[in-house]
Design a protein that fits this description.
Blueprint: E1 4-10, E2 13-20, E3 28-29, H1 34-38, E4 58-61, E5 66-69, E6 72-73, H2 74-80, H3 83-92, H4 98-109, H5 116-122, H6 131-141, H7 155-181, H8 194-203, H9 214-226, H10 234-244, H11 249-260, H12 268-279, H13 285-293, H14 314-330, H15 335-347, H16 351-355, H17 363-373, H18 380-401
Helix pairs in contact: 2-9, 3-18, 6-7, 6-11, 7-8, 7-18, 8-9, 9-14, 9-18, 10-11, 10-18, 11-18, 12-17, 14-17
The structure holds s-citryldethia Coenzyme A.
The site of s-citryldethia Coenzyme A has 21 residues, from loops.
Length: 428
């Protein structure tokens, strides 16, 4: 029983709503009995004031720009950890010992190959298919190949499916890229790190050895860490909702990929770089800032703004620093980075952005880095999906194990016609 109650008076009836307190962050008003007690629903399109579940994975303080994974600040994880270690942390709740990390990394490496039939699945797509269309299709098809890990009531099968998904996403994403450029697929090389293996499968060719550049591998691994999980964002909520019906994990992750594709969500990294290319040089920035402020203009600054962060997205801070590291390592420079820096500077001085608390988010700088490494913009969201898979899988496992979890089935405010009788077509 909650110690604290909130009181609601509605239609001359007063009810008490339990107030639940987490370990940190806003309290929640438990409205699970509201409809039964009042006959009214709550109404919250976009869920701006709604907590959908209890979770111990990721905490965000949007006002302070804080992001914790199992309590550890994203800045510390990005600087000191690895994507495999953060994946273990998200899936298991604690940082691993060296042996635990070695075992986990070994297990993941043993699932990096795809069923050979799946490589023919790619050939059904046009060569110019968007990689996210391929990711949706191939990941959704995994359940047709891995029947032995689709019984969600079996913890062992859930564990194997989780490892398969984390392990196979780099292979699936790399194959999507290879297919789009007409190059042969490369099999995984498990002597490489998770991220090094991905870089080789993406940029290597059978005709010659591929040397992983350590600074690029480190930057890519850090980018994966920055995208690993993010509380109950749209795609994670999609995975949870799909999972709440008992759908198999591969279908749930495919649903998450589909949702992530949208330009308001994970598709923003591709849209942000395309926006920077459209702006071109810094002298054009004021014009685009005015467009972003114009209510009659659908143009928005992509990579800016966030439902939760009303401060600087801590991931964008790390991302901006990583740009210079990659430029130095690859001895490249992209003038779009200067344009991005100037755009951020001018936007953050503008009252519109200040009042609406619009700051760069994780997607604002990522495209500059990914482009410098050699990825086409169409691959950016596929990379986001690759990294977010461990977060989706961890959230899905947490949901399945939550005794309070039932099938998600929101209600509505109905504004359509009230009941009326059918009129035969001859009498209309
Ligand atoms: C991700 O949820 C997550 O955690 C997502 C994510 C994750 O890791 O999973 O962090 C990843 O999706 C990051 C967000 C990527 N999307 C973009 O960069 C697209 C551009 N941003 C916007 O579309 C917008 O900011 C959203 C979608 C991110 C957030 O939208 P909200 O919370 O619904 O806010 P809103 O659209 O109601 O905007 C509030 C106001 C509006 O003005 P008013 O109607 O109040 O006058 O701010 C304006 C908006 O017009 N606004 C912008 C803007 N973003 C919001 N104006 C110009 N440019 C923008 N980018």
């Amino acid at each position: 029983m909650a110690d604290k109650q909130a009181t609601l008076t509605y239609n001359d009836k007063t009810i008490d709503l339990p107030v639940l307190e987490g370990s940190v962050g806003p309290e929640v008003l438990d409205i699970r009995k509201l409809y039964g007690q009042t006959g009214a629903f709550t109404y919250d399109p976009g869920y701006k004031s709604t907590g959908s579940c209890e979770s111990a994975l990721t905490y965000i303080d949007g006002d302070e720009g804080v992001l914790l994974h199992r309590g550890y600040p994203i800045g510390q994880l990005a600087e000191q950890s690895s994507f495999m270690e953060v994946s273990y942390l998200l899936l298991n709740g604690e940082l691993p010992s060296k042996d635990e990390l070695d075992d986990f990394t070994y297990t993941i490496s043993r699932h990096t190959m795809l069923h050979e039939q799946l490589s023919t699945f790619y050939r059904g797509f046009r060569r110019d298919a968007h990689p996210m269309a391929i990711m949706c299709g191939v990941v959704g098809a995994l359940s047709a190949f891995y029947h032995d890990s689709t019984d969600i009531s079996d913890p062992e099968q859930r564990k194997i499916a989780s490892h398969r998904l984390v392990a196979k996403m780099p292979t699936i994403a790399a194959m999507a890229y290879k297919y789009s450029v007409g190059q042969p697929f490369l099999y995984p090389d498990n002597s490489l790190s998770y991220t090094g293996n991905f870089l080789r499968m993406t940029f290597g060719v059978p005709a010659e050895p591929y040397e992983v550049v350590p600074a690029v591998e480190k930057a890519m691994d850090r980018i994966f860490i920055l995208h690993a999980d993010h509380e109950q964002n749209a795609s994670t909520s999609t995975v949870r909702l799909a999972g709440s019906s008992g759908a198999n994990p591969f279908a749930c992750i495919a649903a998450g990929i589909a949702c992530l594709w949208g330009p308001a969500h994970g598709g923003a990294n591709e849209a942000a770089l395309n926006m920077l290319r459209e702006i071109g040089t810094p002298d054009k920035i004021p014009h685009y800032i005015e467009r972003a402020k114009d209510k009659n203009d659908p143009f928005r600054l992509m990579g800016f703004g966030h439902r939760v962060y009303k401060n600087y997205d801590p991931r964008a801070t790390v991302m901006q620093k990583t740009v210079r590291e990659v430029f130095d390592a690859l001895k490249v420079n992209d003038p779009l980075f200067e344009t991005a820096l100037r755009l951020e500077e001018l936007a953050l001085q503008d009252d519109y952005f200040i009042e609406k608390k619009l700051f760069p988010n994780v997607d604002f700088y990522s495209g500059v880095i990914l482009s410098a490494i050699g990825f086409p913009t169409t691959m950016f969201t596929a990379l986001f999906a690759l990294a977010r898979t461990v977060g989706w899988v961890a959230q899905w496992n947490e949901m399945i194990s939550d005794p309070a979890q039932v099938i998600g089935r929101p209600r509505q405010l109905y504004t359509g016609p009230t009941q009326r009788d059918y009129v035969p077509v001859g009498q209309r």
